[in-house]
Every structure is written in structure tokens, then in C-alpha cells.
Amino acid sequence: MRAVLVGPPGAGKGTQAQILAEELTIPKVSTGDIFRANVSGGTELGKKAKEFMDRGDLVPDEVTNAMVKDRLAQEDTAGGFLLDGFPRNVPQAETLKGMLADLGTSLDVVLELKVDEEEVVKRLSGRRSCPECGRVYHVEYDAPKVEGECDNEGAELYQREDDREETIRHRLKVYREQTAPLVEFYEAEGLLATISATGPVAEVTARAKAAIDEKR
Ligand code: AP5
Ligand code: ZN
Predict the structure, then answer these.
(1) Which of 48, 71, 157, 192 is the 20 to 30 Å CA partner of 96?
(2) pLDDT at position 134
(3) Rounded to the nearest whole angstrom, what is the distance from the C-alpha of residue 19 to the centroid of ligand 2?
(4) Using an 8 Å Cβ cutoff, are 106 and 97 in contact?
């Protein structure tokens, strides 16, 4: 299964990608997570990405595409993958198509998660993330067992730099202008499946699985 998740910031792409990747036994490839790991590790790639991420802008395509190309050349993604956060504009989608063609393959499905903007602002302003295992929580909707600590290993949860309300609004604008056109692009390719991402996490997962199964 080669699948892509598309949706605005806070739609629950990361949350669903984690669950779906486990259930489908394919690796999850999240460009946002890879960038954040590089920023906290102080790598060259992290230095290039940080200012764009903190502003809520897209990291330049040449940087992002090269990073994804490396990741998709690794062995564990040869049998399938779930992309979360990539592609994020039409040129990235064209690049991905070319990369996969070079590997002799193509996408099976693009799952669009739909949710309204006010809900997104609520979700992102309450999000807390684990620096160790990458799990995301929400202070109200999906709280950890002990406040401020990850259920998995007890690491102290943090709030993302780009989860301030002003930056959230800017990320939504970037989504509308640059990422939303992907919906038509993938519709034309016959790959698009759209589901509502509102409601409990488990319900969204069930909708996602049904939509993926239909496209298989
Ligand atoms: P990225 O990390 O991809 O951020 P994003 O797209 O803005 O998405 P988020 O991670 O904010 O949200 P999500 O949809 O994953 O939601 P989540 O599951 O966490 O990218 C960050 C930055 O990296 C970009 O701004 C850019 O600079 C750069 N970047 C990344 N990819 C790039 C690319 N391809 N090109 C260029 N630049 C790139 O859920 C959110 C919250 O809601 C959580 O608290 C969660 O617990 C809660 N929640 C989830 N589901 C539900 C539910 N059903 N009900 C209630 N609460 C829920
Ligand atoms: Zn953790």
C-alpha cells in the first residue's frame, strides 16, 4: 500500500498516520517529524528548515524533495508507505510521481481529511507532543494519564513552536493557497478519497480504513 494523507494542519494526519501505519504494517513517513528531528538535532537540514517552520511557511521544495527521495530509497519503504505531510503543493506531487515512476511504482490512494478551521485552531492550541516517541496528545480531547507526561516512557510533553494562534492562522492560509489544489490534482488522477475528520479519533480511523479498502 502506497498512500498519502492530505489535510489542513490539525486535521489529525499525524494521529491517524500513526494508527494506520501500525494496522497496515507499513512505515509512516512524516516530513514534519523528520524536519523537527533535524531541528532538535541541530543538523544542516534542520538549520535550513527552522525559519520556515517557525513562521508556518513551507520549506523550499528542493530541500523537501531531496529529503523524501532519500527516505523512499531506504529498504523499509520498498514494500509500501504512508506519507504524512508530503506532498504539500502541486510541484511536490509531480516530483513524487516521477520518483515513484523511477522506482517502477505509483500511489494507490490519497486520503483527504476534512475538518473546519475553527476546530483546527482548538485542536492545535491544545496539542502537546512527546519529544521521545513522537506521540501527540490534546489537553482536553486526548489527555495523557499523567498531566504533561507521555504514557509510553514518561517524557515531558512540549508545545510546538508553530502552535501559537497567529502562526496557526498563517499555516491555514498556506494550506488554502498551496496545498488545497492537490485535491483537484489527485481527483483528476483517480486517487482521491475524502472523509470527514471530525468526531472521535477511532471513528475517523474507521472511516479512513473503509476509504482505503475501497481504493485497493
Ligand atoms: P507538519 O508537521 O506536517 O504540520 P501540519 O501539516 O501543520 O500538521 P500538524 O502536525 O499540525 O497536524 P496533524 O494534521 O498532523 O494533526 P495531529 O494528528 O497532530 O509540518 C510542520 C511544518 O513543517 C510545516 O509548516 C512546514 O514548514 C514543514 N513541512 C512539513 N512538510 C513539508 C512539505 N512537504 N513541504 C514543505 N514544508 C513542509 O492532531 C492535532 C491535534 O488534534 C492533537 O492534539 C490531537 O491529539 C488532536 N486530535 C487529532 N484527531 C482528533 C480528533 N478526531 N478529535 C479531537 N482531537 C483530535
Ligand atoms: Zn513518548
Answers:
(1) 48
(2) 85
(3) 15
(4) yes
Neighbours of ion ligand 2 (CB under 5 A): 130, 132-133, 135, 150, 152, 155
Name the percent of the chain lying above pLDDT 70.
100
Q: How far apart are CA 135 and CA 154, in angstroms?
A: 12
Is residue 81 included in any domain, yes or no?
Answer: yes
Indicate whether 22 belongs to any domain: yes
Alpha-carbon span 84 to 104, nearest angstrom: 22
Supply the pLDDT for residue 68: 95
Q: Which ligand is nearest to the CA of 68?
A: 1
pLDDT at 216 over 80: no
Question: Per the structure, how many domains does the chain have?
Answer: 1
- Asked whether residue 173 is assigned to any structural domain, the reply reads no
Grid coordinates representing 15 are: 494521529
The CA–CA distances, whole Å, from 200 to 8, 11, 174, 184, 191 equal 17, 12, 26, 27, 25
Is 161 within a domain? Answer: no
Q: Report the mean per-residue pLDDT for the chain.
A: 95
pLDDT at 161: 87
Q: What is the mean pLDDT of residues 10-37?
A: 94
Nearest-CA residue for atom 6 of ligand 1: 9
Residues with CB under 6 A from ligand 1: 7, 9-15, 31-32, 35, 52-53, 56-59, 64, 85-86, 88, 92, 123-124, 126-127, 136-138, 141-142, 162, 171, 200-201, 204
Structural domain including 52 reads 2-115+183-215
